[in-house]
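Task: sequence design from structure.
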């Protein structure tokens, strides 16, 4: 830990600090690390609007044509600022589940969006659709994530105590045309989770 980080966290290790703040159950836990204020004037505000699930090609994701067993990187929340939008904490794996996990359903239950920030040491994991994989894998130390639940089931992240073994997720809504929208999240461990920290499974 750098001297600067040490100063910010009052001498606690980063992980201890995060655990402490997570225990406080507040999305503001990451205030020292993430410039929430740059894009969320009030992170606890219920005034956040639902926004389209925007794919990397700029199109609006739709239940009727998004492939089964497929993932793309989406950015949330978007600011319009190219540099800010590249932050790891805004990156999510938008997954349509494989058929055997319900990916063929024509509703929002076929979809997941999990934070790409691995719960171990914050590398970026991704979904692998290949036969025999069909799971999230982190390239750094081998943590693997269940696409159905976001639970780490192998590797160092799987050994961490809840909520640090379950990925934060976004919630969806669909309109009558099948277009998918991200519902305003609540950044708390008992709701959508806290990016880089985790989520309790209800
Ligand atoms: S950072 Fe992902 S397994 Fe260590």
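Answer:
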């Amino acid at each position: 830990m750098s001297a600067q980080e040490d100063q910010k966290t009052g001498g606690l290790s980063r992980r201890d600090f995060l655990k402490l703040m997570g225990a406080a159950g507040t999305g503001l836990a990451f205030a020292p690390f993430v410039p929430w204020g740059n894009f969320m004037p009030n992170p606890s505000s219920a005034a956040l609007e639902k926004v389209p699930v925007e794919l990397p090609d700029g199109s609006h994701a739709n239940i009727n044509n998004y492939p089964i067993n497929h993932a793309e990187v989406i950015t949330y929340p978007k600011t319009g600022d190219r540099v800010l939008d590249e932050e790891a904490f805004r990156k999510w794996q938008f997954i349509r589940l494989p058929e055997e996990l319900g990916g063929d359903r024509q509703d929002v239950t076929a979809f997941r969006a999990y934070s790409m920030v691995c719960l171990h040491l914050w590398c970026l994991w991704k979904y692998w659709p290949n036969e025999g994989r069909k799971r999230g894998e982190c390239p750094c130390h081998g943590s693997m994530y269940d696409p159905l639940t976001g639970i780490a089931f192998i590797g160092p992240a799987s050994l961490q105590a809840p909520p640090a073994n379950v990925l934060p997720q976004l919630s969806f809504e669909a309109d009558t045309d099948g277009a998918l929208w991200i519902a305003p999240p609540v950044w708390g461990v008992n709701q959508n989770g806290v990016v880089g920290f985790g989520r309790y499974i209800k």
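The chain has two domains: 1-37, 49-202.
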